[in-house]
Hints:
The chain is of the alpha/beta class. Helix content is 41%, strand content 18%. Residues 12-15, 73, 96, 98-99, 164-165, 194, 196-197, 224, 265 line the site of iron/sulfur cluster.
Amino acid sequence: xxxxxxxxxxxxxxxxxxxxxxxxxxxxxxxxxxxxxxxxxxxxxxxxxxxxxxxxxxxxxxxxxxxxxxxxxxxxxxxxxxxxxxxxxxxxxxxxxxxxxxxxxxxxxxxxxxxxxxxxxxxxxxxxxxxxxxxxxxxxxxxxxxxxxxxxxxxxxxxxxxxxxxxxxxxxxxxxxxxxxxxxxxxxxxxxxxxxxxxxxxxxxxxxxxxxxxxxxxxxxxxxxxxxxxxxxxxxxxxxxxxxxxxxxxxxxxxxxxxxxxxxxxxxxxxxxxxxxxxxxxxxxxxxxxxxxxxxxxxxxxxxxxxxxxxx
Length: 312
Ligand code: SF4
Protein backbone atom coordinates (compact mmCIF):
# COMPACT_ATOMS: atom_id res chain seq x y z
CA UNK A 1 0.00 0.00 0.00
CA UNK A 2 1.37 3.38 -0.98
CA UNK A 3 0.22 6.28 1.21
CA UNK A 4 0.58 9.80 -0.17
CA UNK A 5 0.24 12.68 2.28
CA UNK A 6 -1.00 16.06 1.09
CA UNK A 7 1.22 18.98 2.01
CA UNK A 8 0.08 21.28 3.52
CA UNK A 9 -2.47 19.53 5.70
CA UNK A 10 -3.75 19.91 9.26
CA UNK A 11 -3.23 22.83 11.60
CA UNK A 12 -3.20 26.36 10.19
CA UNK A 13 -1.71 29.40 11.93
CA UNK A 14 -5.11 30.48 13.31
CA UNK A 15 -5.70 27.11 14.94
CA UNK A 16 -2.17 26.94 16.37
CA UNK A 17 -2.69 30.39 17.88
CA UNK A 18 -6.14 29.57 19.30
CA UNK A 19 -4.95 26.38 21.01
CA UNK A 20 -1.88 28.18 22.35
CA UNK A 21 -4.09 30.93 23.80
CA UNK A 22 -6.02 28.34 25.84
CA UNK A 23 -2.86 26.53 26.95
CA UNK A 24 -1.07 29.72 27.98
CA UNK A 25 -4.17 31.07 29.72
CA UNK A 26 -4.28 27.85 31.77
CA UNK A 27 -0.59 28.30 32.63
CA UNK A 28 -0.87 31.97 33.49
CA UNK A 29 -4.23 32.09 35.30
CA UNK A 30 -4.64 28.46 36.38
CA UNK A 31 -7.68 26.27 35.64
CA UNK A 32 -10.48 26.59 34.97
CA UNK A 33 -10.62 28.93 32.01
CA UNK A 34 -13.87 29.17 30.04
CA UNK A 35 -13.98 28.85 26.27
CA UNK A 36 -17.06 29.97 24.39
CA UNK A 37 -17.81 27.28 21.78
CA UNK A 38 -15.27 24.62 20.70
CA UNK A 39 -11.99 26.55 20.43
CA UNK A 40 -11.56 24.87 17.02
CA UNK A 41 -13.83 22.22 15.50
CA UNK A 42 -12.01 19.11 16.66
CA UNK A 43 -13.08 16.76 19.44
CA UNK A 44 -9.52 15.56 20.11
CA UNK A 45 -8.27 19.10 20.60
CA UNK A 46 -11.24 19.97 22.82
CA UNK A 47 -10.87 16.82 24.95
CA UNK A 48 -7.15 17.39 25.48
CA UNK A 49 -7.77 21.00 26.60
CA UNK A 50 -10.62 19.84 28.86
CA UNK A 51 -8.19 17.45 30.53
CA UNK A 52 -5.92 20.43 31.26
CA UNK A 53 -8.74 22.42 32.87
CA UNK A 54 -10.54 24.28 30.06
CA UNK A 55 -14.33 24.38 30.28
CA UNK A 56 -16.31 24.72 27.07
CA UNK A 57 -19.64 26.58 27.09
CA UNK A 58 -22.03 27.71 24.36
CA UNK A 59 -23.34 30.75 26.18
CA UNK A 60 -21.64 33.38 28.34
CA UNK A 61 -24.37 32.92 30.98
CA UNK A 62 -22.56 29.66 31.86
CA UNK A 63 -19.37 31.57 32.74
CA UNK A 64 -19.07 32.46 36.44
CA UNK A 65 -18.21 36.05 37.52
CA UNK A 66 -14.58 37.12 36.91
CA UNK A 67 -13.65 33.87 35.14
CA UNK A 68 -11.11 34.07 32.31
CA UNK A 69 -13.12 33.79 29.09
CA UNK A 70 -11.80 32.88 25.66
CA UNK A 71 -13.60 33.45 22.37
CA UNK A 72 -13.06 30.69 19.81
CA UNK A 73 -11.12 30.99 16.54
CA UNK A 74 -14.40 31.40 14.61
CA UNK A 75 -15.12 34.84 16.07
CA UNK A 76 -18.17 36.17 17.89
CA UNK A 77 -20.96 38.68 17.34
CA UNK A 78 -20.64 42.19 18.77
CA UNK A 79 -23.44 41.33 21.24
CA UNK A 80 -21.24 38.61 22.78
CA UNK A 81 -18.34 41.06 23.18
CA UNK A 82 -20.74 43.57 24.75
CA UNK A 83 -22.18 41.00 27.15
CA UNK A 84 -18.67 40.02 28.28
CA UNK A 85 -17.75 43.69 28.72
CA UNK A 86 -20.92 44.44 30.70
CA UNK A 87 -20.02 41.60 33.07
CA UNK A 88 -16.36 42.74 33.24
CA UNK A 89 -15.22 39.28 32.23
CA UNK A 90 -11.49 39.11 31.50
CA UNK A 91 -11.53 38.12 27.82
CA UNK A 92 -8.85 36.63 25.62
CA UNK A 93 -9.93 36.74 22.02
CA UNK A 94 -8.77 33.74 19.95
CA UNK A 95 -10.64 34.88 16.83
CA UNK A 96 -8.35 34.15 13.88
CA UNK A 97 -6.89 37.42 12.59
CA UNK A 98 -8.06 36.44 9.10
CA UNK A 99 -11.66 36.25 10.36
CA UNK A 100 -11.25 39.64 12.07
CA UNK A 101 -9.99 40.99 8.73
CA UNK A 102 -13.29 39.93 7.12
CA UNK A 103 -15.25 41.62 9.94
CA UNK A 104 -13.34 44.86 9.36
CA UNK A 105 -13.75 44.66 5.61
CA UNK A 106 -17.53 44.20 6.03
CA UNK A 107 -17.69 47.20 8.40
CA UNK A 108 -15.83 49.36 5.86
CA UNK A 109 -18.24 48.42 3.06
CA UNK A 110 -21.26 49.24 5.25
CA UNK A 111 -19.67 52.57 6.23
CA UNK A 112 -19.46 53.34 2.49
CA UNK A 113 -23.26 52.96 2.34
CA UNK A 114 -23.25 49.55 0.67
CA UNK A 115 -25.66 46.72 1.43
CA UNK A 116 -23.55 43.78 2.64
CA UNK A 117 -23.90 40.24 1.34
CA UNK A 118 -22.08 37.42 3.12
CA UNK A 119 -21.29 34.26 1.15
CA UNK A 120 -21.21 31.43 3.68
CA UNK A 121 -22.99 28.54 5.38
CA UNK A 122 -25.99 29.25 7.64
CA UNK A 123 -25.48 28.26 11.25
CA UNK A 124 -21.67 28.12 11.14
CA UNK A 125 -20.28 30.09 14.11
CA UNK A 126 -17.99 32.14 11.85
CA UNK A 127 -21.03 33.24 9.82
CA UNK A 128 -22.99 34.07 12.96
CA UNK A 129 -20.01 36.04 14.27
CA UNK A 130 -19.47 37.97 11.03
CA UNK A 131 -23.18 38.82 10.66
CA UNK A 132 -23.28 39.86 14.30
CA UNK A 133 -20.26 42.17 13.92
CA UNK A 134 -21.96 44.37 11.33
CA UNK A 135 -24.30 47.07 12.61
CA UNK A 136 -26.58 46.89 9.52
CA UNK A 137 -28.56 43.82 8.37
CA UNK A 138 -26.40 41.37 6.38
CA UNK A 139 -27.83 39.12 3.66
CA UNK A 140 -26.50 35.56 3.63
CA UNK A 141 -26.18 33.67 0.35
CA UNK A 142 -25.14 30.03 0.27
CA UNK A 143 -25.62 29.08 -3.39
CA UNK A 144 -25.95 30.58 -6.87
CA UNK A 145 -29.72 29.90 -6.64
CA UNK A 146 -29.87 32.06 -3.51
CA UNK A 147 -28.51 34.95 -5.60
CA UNK A 148 -31.43 34.62 -8.07
CA UNK A 149 -33.88 34.79 -5.18
CA UNK A 150 -32.46 38.00 -3.61
CA UNK A 151 -35.13 40.64 -3.15
CA UNK A 152 -32.79 43.62 -3.60
CA UNK A 153 -33.06 46.09 -6.55
CA UNK A 154 -30.24 45.43 -9.04
CA UNK A 155 -28.91 49.02 -8.91
CA UNK A 156 -28.49 48.97 -5.08
CA UNK A 157 -24.84 49.58 -4.12
CA UNK A 158 -23.80 46.23 -2.66
CA UNK A 159 -20.62 44.60 -1.41
CA UNK A 160 -19.84 41.04 -0.47
CA UNK A 161 -17.47 39.26 1.87
CA UNK A 162 -17.05 35.52 2.29
CA UNK A 163 -16.58 32.93 5.00
CA UNK A 164 -12.88 32.01 5.19
CA UNK A 165 -13.26 28.25 4.70
CA UNK A 166 -15.36 27.93 1.53
CA UNK A 167 -14.59 26.04 -1.67
CA UNK A 168 -12.73 28.43 -3.96
CA UNK A 169 -14.54 27.08 -7.06
CA UNK A 170 -18.07 27.22 -5.56
CA UNK A 171 -17.43 30.74 -4.29
CA UNK A 172 -16.22 31.89 -7.70
CA UNK A 173 -19.56 30.75 -9.17
CA UNK A 174 -21.57 32.65 -6.54
CA UNK A 175 -19.47 35.79 -7.04
CA UNK A 176 -20.02 35.60 -10.82
CA UNK A 177 -23.79 35.31 -10.19
CA UNK A 178 -23.66 38.37 -7.91
CA UNK A 179 -21.80 40.39 -10.56
CA UNK A 180 -24.49 39.44 -13.08
CA UNK A 181 -27.26 40.36 -10.66
CA UNK A 182 -25.95 43.78 -9.44
CA UNK A 183 -24.66 46.75 -11.42
CA UNK A 184 -22.79 48.41 -8.53
CA UNK A 185 -20.92 45.72 -6.61
CA UNK A 186 -17.52 45.44 -4.95
CA UNK A 187 -15.81 42.65 -3.06
CA UNK A 188 -12.55 40.81 -2.54
CA UNK A 189 -13.17 38.07 -5.18
CA UNK A 190 -12.06 34.85 -3.43
CA UNK A 191 -9.34 36.51 -1.36
CA UNK A 192 -11.33 36.18 1.91
CA UNK A 193 -10.94 32.42 1.61
CA UNK A 194 -7.87 32.11 3.78
CA UNK A 195 -4.43 30.95 2.66
CA UNK A 196 -4.75 27.71 4.66
CA UNK A 197 -8.08 26.76 3.10
CA UNK A 198 -6.82 27.55 -0.41
CA UNK A 199 -3.55 25.64 0.03
CA UNK A 200 -5.27 22.54 1.46
CA UNK A 201 -7.75 22.60 -1.43
CA UNK A 202 -4.96 22.86 -4.02
CA UNK A 203 -3.13 19.98 -2.32
CA UNK A 204 -6.19 17.70 -2.27
CA UNK A 205 -6.71 18.36 -5.99
CA UNK A 206 -3.10 17.30 -6.64
CA UNK A 207 -3.60 14.27 -4.40
CA UNK A 208 -6.69 13.17 -6.31
CA UNK A 209 -4.58 12.78 -9.50
CA UNK A 210 -2.31 10.28 -7.75
CA UNK A 211 -4.45 8.06 -5.53
CA UNK A 212 -7.36 5.60 -5.60
CA UNK A 213 -8.98 6.75 -2.34
CA UNK A 214 -8.65 9.91 -0.23
CA UNK A 215 -9.08 10.17 3.52
CA UNK A 216 -9.76 13.61 4.95
CA UNK A 217 -9.07 13.69 8.67
CA UNK A 218 -11.37 16.20 10.33
CA UNK A 219 -14.54 16.74 12.32
CA UNK A 220 -17.98 16.47 10.74
CA UNK A 221 -18.71 20.07 11.82
CA UNK A 222 -15.43 21.42 10.39
CA UNK A 223 -16.24 23.57 7.36
CA UNK A 224 -12.82 23.41 5.71
CA UNK A 225 -12.63 19.60 6.20
CA UNK A 226 -16.02 19.12 4.53
CA UNK A 227 -14.88 21.25 1.59
CA UNK A 228 -11.74 19.10 1.21
CA UNK A 229 -13.88 15.96 1.03
CA UNK A 230 -16.19 17.53 -1.57
CA UNK A 231 -13.27 18.73 -3.70
CA UNK A 232 -11.61 15.29 -3.67
CA UNK A 233 -14.94 13.70 -4.61
CA UNK A 234 -15.61 16.27 -7.38
CA UNK A 235 -12.16 15.48 -8.79
CA UNK A 236 -13.41 11.91 -9.23
CA UNK A 237 -11.72 10.13 -6.31
CA UNK A 238 -13.73 8.36 -3.59
CA UNK A 239 -13.19 10.55 -0.56
CA UNK A 240 -14.07 9.91 3.09
CA UNK A 241 -14.15 12.37 6.00
CA UNK A 242 -13.11 10.61 9.20
CA UNK A 243 -12.64 11.96 12.70
CA UNK A 244 -9.85 9.46 13.47
CA UNK A 245 -8.56 5.95 12.75
CA UNK A 246 -11.49 4.30 14.56
CA UNK A 247 -13.74 5.26 11.60
CA UNK A 248 -11.62 3.46 8.97
CA UNK A 249 -13.58 0.93 6.92
CA UNK A 250 -11.51 -1.84 5.25
CA UNK A 251 -14.00 -2.08 2.35
CA UNK A 252 -12.87 1.38 1.12
CA UNK A 253 -9.40 0.01 0.31
CA UNK A 254 -10.33 -3.36 -1.23
CA UNK A 255 -9.12 -2.41 -4.71
CA UNK A 256 -6.88 0.49 -3.70
CA UNK A 257 -3.12 0.45 -4.21
CA UNK A 258 -2.59 4.09 -3.33
CA UNK A 259 -4.33 6.01 -0.55
CA UNK A 260 -4.12 9.77 -0.12
CA UNK A 261 -4.43 11.42 3.27
CA UNK A 262 -5.06 15.05 4.08
CA UNK A 263 -6.37 16.78 7.20
CA UNK A 264 -8.55 19.80 7.83
CA UNK A 265 -7.07 22.92 9.42
CA UNK A 266 -8.27 21.92 12.90
CA UNK A 267 -7.12 18.27 12.83
CA UNK A 268 -3.94 17.41 14.78
CA UNK A 269 -1.14 15.55 12.99
CA UNK A 270 -1.22 12.78 15.60
CA UNK A 271 -4.50 11.59 14.04
CA UNK A 272 -2.83 11.26 10.63
CA UNK A 273 0.02 9.30 12.25
CA UNK A 274 -2.49 6.96 13.91
CA UNK A 275 -4.06 6.20 10.54
CA UNK A 276 -0.68 5.43 8.96
CA UNK A 277 0.04 3.13 11.93
CA UNK A 278 -3.30 1.39 11.40
CA UNK A 279 -2.39 0.79 7.72
CA UNK A 280 1.07 -0.41 8.69
CA UNK A 281 -0.51 -3.14 10.84
CA UNK A 282 -2.38 -4.55 7.81
CA UNK A 283 -0.20 -3.77 4.78
CA UNK A 284 3.41 -3.18 3.77
CA UNK A 285 3.22 0.60 3.62
CA UNK A 286 5.39 3.20 1.92
CA UNK A 287 4.73 6.88 2.62
CA UNK A 288 5.31 9.80 0.23
CA UNK A 289 4.25 13.45 0.22
CA UNK A 290 2.80 15.60 -2.55
CA UNK A 291 3.47 19.25 -1.88
CA UNK A 292 1.26 22.03 -3.23
CA UNK A 293 2.53 24.98 -1.17
CA UNK A 294 4.95 25.99 1.57
CA UNK A 295 3.46 27.76 4.58
CA UNK A 296 5.29 30.00 7.02
CA UNK A 297 2.37 31.98 8.47
CA UNK A 298 2.45 32.88 12.16
CA UNK A 299 0.03 35.01 14.19
CA UNK A 300 1.21 36.58 17.48
CA UNK A 301 -0.63 35.85 20.71
CA UNK A 302 -2.75 38.52 22.48
CA UNK A 303 -0.50 40.88 24.45
CA UNK A 304 -1.11 39.51 28.01
CA UNK A 305 -0.06 36.06 26.86
CA UNK A 306 2.89 37.32 24.83
CA UNK A 307 4.38 38.44 28.14
CA UNK A 308 4.01 34.85 29.42
CA UNK A 309 5.82 33.72 26.28
CA UNK A 310 8.67 36.20 26.84
CA UNK A 311 9.04 35.21 30.51
CA UNK A 312 9.88 31.58 29.64
S1 SF4 B 1 -8.76 28.09 8.55
FE1 SF4 B 1 -7.99 30.12 7.94
S2 SF4 B 1 -9.40 31.60 8.87
FE2 SF4 B 1 -9.75 29.61 9.90
S3 SF4 B 1 -8.41 29.67 11.70
FE3 SF4 B 1 -7.21 28.73 10.03
S4 SF4 B 1 -6.08 30.46 9.08
FE4 SF4 B 1 -7.75 31.32 10.31
